[in-house]
Design a protein that fits this description.
The chain is an alpha/beta fold. Helix content is 32%, strand content 12%. The chain is built from eleven helices and ten strands. The strands form two sheets. A seven-stranded mixed β-sheet has the order 2-3-6-7-8-9-10. It has a three-stranded mixed β-sheet with strand order 1-5-4. α2 packs parallel to α4, α4 packs parallel to α5 and α7 runs parallel beside α8. It is globular, with a radius of gyration of 21 Å.
Amino acid sequence: MYKGRGAQIQVKNKFLAYEYVQEHLEGLDEFDEEAPRTQYIKIFPKTIVNKVDSPDVGMEYSLNPYQGCEHGCIYCYARNTHEYWGYNAGLDFERVILYKASAPELLEKHFQKPKWKPKTIVLSGNTDCYQPIERKLKITRSLLEVFLKYKHPVGMITKNVIVTRDIDILGQLADMNLIGMLFSITSLEEKVRRKLEPRTATAKQKLKTIEKLSKRGIPVSIMIGPVIPGLNDHEIPEIMKAASDAGALSAGYTMVRLNGQIGRVFEDWVVQAFPDIASKVLNQIKGAHNGNLNESRYGFRMRGEGRMVQSINRMFEISKAKYFSSKTLVPPLRTDLFVKTNKGQLGLF
């Protein structure tokens, strides 16, 4: 297996008539697949805030400073979006990272639109805004500075401990009830985590991050995303207890769904990573989605259905009642503090 990568294959991009393939396994082709390096490509979008039309994702607007994600999570629903950029949902997704250096300026222009009324914008609706290259590029940090400048509400979804670097800005946003953080934890078992999401932090580091953010007063909830039956569903109670002990205020979960080319990428991966239970995992995923690896129906696609799913949901609800019933939830993020003048915040002086 390729170390440090989730996907182990390239898959065809449905939008391309031609594709690169390796025909000679003996190495006659000029492919360097043994050490696939990450490429970083600067792109120039015209806008940065996206309207979310899907009714079951829990957000109205999203903002993604990066396309593609080096974390390499094998299950990631965003893999298919890489096809729109001319790449594929397999190895390309995690080794060709497109970044939007102009994102902070575009966000400020968006806030200056006369018709814009503040509503929570979620960073990482598609790919993680704190993936490894953020340490160097600091695009997400610059975006948070814009949110703070305009006193605009922002939500965040991440699984990377780099987020603690920006605790100074996040803390100021939290003091005004302008930030909500959703931290992703999929497994507490290192042997699973290393294969499932190879370039993310360890579970122990994630829990320490939740603790550090919570102590500063930054509201953090967790997402067990996704639950993969036969692989990590049994960990739900343990994950929720550990997260609650670390300071998380609430928890949610999504059921794995392998839409588009992700199904092929995942099938290849699970046979290599967990050959003894591969058939069980695939069959249980299909059992949650009417015999298919994918489910596209709104309301069902991220929850699944059937007796097994009912059992998983019951285990989640019992664990939530046990470990989170005493938690105080954060009220809706404020929108009344939003500062907008023709000159931005400088217009106040």
